[in-house]
Every structure is written in C-alpha cells, then in structure tokens.
Amino acid sequence: MPITLDWLGCATFRLAIDDTVLFLDAYIDRVPSAPNVGLSAADITRADAVLVGHSHFDHIAGAEVIAANTEAVVIGSNESARVLLEAGIDESQLLRSQGGERHRIADGITVEVFPSLHSCIWTQGSWDPGKVVLGQYGLTEEQRWGGRGLLDVGGSLGESSPDQDQLQRAQMLDHVATCLGSSDTGGALAYLIDTPYGSIFYHDTSGCWTGVVQNLRPDLGIVAMAGRPNIDGEPIQGSLAQFVGRMSDMLRAPRVILGHHDDWMPPMTRDMTSADALAPVANELNHIAPRTELLDVPLGGRVELWR
Predict the structure, then answer these.
(1) Burial class (CB in 10 A: 0-12, 13-18, 19+), 51
(2) Is the alpha carbon torsion for 138, 133, 217, 106 positive or negative?
(3) Could you tell me the residue ranges of all domains in the chain?
(4) Are residues 151 and 183 in contact, defined by beta-carbon separation less than 8 angstroms?
(5) Is residue 261 within 8 Å of 226, Cβ to Cβ?
(6) Whether pTM exceeds 0.85
(7) What pLDDT was estimated at residue 233?
C-alpha cells in the first residue's frame, strides 16, 4: 500500500500510512476567498491522530471537528489542549506535550515531540522568497511588540493597501474572529514521525532551535515557508529561501516539501507556490543542500512518499 501525503492548504497535511491516518495541523475550512482545497473538516471520517504545531487559528481550527467525528487523539501544547477542551473535546483524547515526549500511534508508528519556535510575527518578512530582509536583531520583547497584538492585521501579518478588495478584508476579519484558536502560540512544537518506511520531520511555522533540528536526520522534511523566519530566537538576517536552505542543510533529509506558502488568507497573504516564486528556493537548495530534492505537492493534491 502506498504511503501518501495530501497538502490541504496552509500548513495542513494528511499523512496516510497503511491503515493509519495522521493529520498534521487541521486548518481546512478557510476564508471564502482562499483557494478551495476540495474538502472540509466535516468531510473527514478517518483519523487516528492530529498533530497540532501551535495554537493559532490557522493551525488548530478544525482539530475539534476531526477529533469529535473520528475519536482521533490530538497531540499539542497545554494551550492547544485548553482550546480544544473549551470546544468540547474530552481530556482522554488530548496528549499534552511540550517537547521530549514520544507517543505511540499504531504498530510501528511513533511521534516524537520537540520544542520549536514560531516565525517572528512581530516584524514583517517578505512575500518574495528570494528577498533578503535585515534588522530587528537583539531586541527585547517590549521593543519587538510595542503594544501591538498578534491580530493587528496589516502590521504583524501583512500589509493592506487602499486598492485591496474590501469584501475580502471583511470576510477575513470575520473569519479570524469566529475561528477556533488562541492569540498565544502555546509554544510551537515540531514532530518527528517514525514509520516502518521512513521518518518525517514536520513543523508548521518558520522557526527552529538549531540544536534540535541539526541532529534529527529524517527521510523527509516538511518545512514551513512564511513570514520572517526565527532562528534560535532571532529573526533571520536573510530570505525565506535561505531559511529553507538552512533547514535542509541541518536536517540532511533526501527530500523536502514546503508548507504554509499558499494564499491562505487573502488579501493579507500572497501565493508563493508558482515555479517563479520557488526559483530562489530551488537555487538555494542547489547551492546549500544539492543532495536534497524539493518535492512539488500541488494545493489540494497528493504525493506518494513510499510504496
């Protein structure tokens, strides 16, 4: 039986390993103006586990629906557990984790949890993966935030302009206000999924502790590419493409798949999935990690990992 991975938009993936189904994040029901991925959370009838990278709405929303409909366990932080408890999910389905845990999902399938970092949402990155962004280094939390909240849309997450569609913006703000989620990350987590066929690294936001990532050596890496990457607590002095290259160099995975780089929340976001947009990433990998293959998974599409 082939081992498959479906990209369901943003950083959400469905991983099918023989008879076991894992969801990596759960954000499927997007704002109406976002590209459709072909199904909703309510359509999910099979899931054994949901791995939540952090507690923001664009990652955890939908986990409550999948967990309720399938009785899947949910691995996530204490904040993710709190959010899901308030949504009616039973404590017995919640595997609270902060890094250092190893969970058995099925025979031969385990999930190891590692502490990770969220991208630097207090400062802007670039929608051009090849553009180098500098500065904002060595600041305190008070200097970083300056009183601005996470959902200051158009500041911490993206810039709006007068000519952007106001209906889309209204839909976006309503969507953010009504989605399940928290204004806190809950502490970002990364996962190493070990299967009889190979191991898979997954994180859902562009950040990492280098001391953690550089020793994992998975067979496949799923790397988030959005915002201003966070390396060991500081914003990258470079580009998104360089972050992907650095992650690939540390992981030494033969294959890499990108996530979180579609137009998941227009008009705030931009599409970074085209061949032109990804050219700097391919060039960086050729230079930094020439033995790593960048796999293309179309939005709403599927790739076969092993057979």
Answers:
(1) buried
(2) positive
(3) 3-120+181-306
(4) yes
(5) yes
(6) yes
(7) 97
DSSP 106-133: ETTEEEEEEE-----TTS---SSTT--B
Angstrom distance (rounded) from CA 250 to CA 20: 29
Q: Per the CATH hierarchy, to which homologous superfamily does domain 3-120+181-306 belong? A: Ribonuclease Z/Hydroxyacylglutathione hydrolase-like (3.60.15.10)
Q: Degrees (nearest 5) of the Cα angle 95, 10, 111?
A: 30
pLDDT at 164: 53
Cα–Cα distances (Å) from 31 to 57, 100, 158, 182, 196, in that order, read: 12, 35, 16, 17, 37
What's phi and psi for 103, nearest 5 deg?
A: -110, 135
- Residue 50: partners with Cβ closer than 8 Å, 6 or more residues away: 22, 23, 25, 26, 63, 66, 67, 72, 73, 74, 75, 76
Cβ atoms of 224 and 259 closer than 8 Å: yes
> Three-class SS of residue 47?
coil
The pLDDT value recorded for residue 165 is 72
The pLDDT of residue 148: 56
Task: Copy the structure tokens of residue 248.
Answer: 């690939």
258 burial (CB, 10 Å; 0-12 / 13-18 / 19+) is: buried
Beta bridge partners of 258: 223
Q: Which residues of the chain have pLDDT under 70?
A: 147-164
Please say whether the beta carbons of 294 and 258 come within 8 A: yes
- Cα–Cα distance, 189 to 51 (Å, whole number): 9
What interhelical angle do 63-70 and 78-86 show, nearest 10? 70
